[in-house]
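Q: Sequence in, structure out?
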Amino acid sequence: MSEEYGANFITVTDDDGNEFELEHLDTIEFNGNTYLAFFPAVSEDAEEDEEEELGLILMKVIKENGEEILSTLDSEEETEAVYTEFMKTLFEDEEE
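A: Exactly. Output:
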């Protein structure tokens, strides 16, 4: 993803109705699916004492009722394979 356009942020809502802002890092096509990688956005008003676990969030695009939506991955195996593929892409970009 080109950084010349700045960061891309989206807001997602979980099953409990909680909203989260995520920063989109990259998108890949892998095994016939589209996957997106995100980091949680850090709010400016978050207290310095708060220790949040800010890990990579992987989601995939699925079709539901003819509409594309983001979904969590189905299994630990899928998560590991997609994570590995994102890391390959990341390190390929750094070598150039």
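The helical segments are 76-95.
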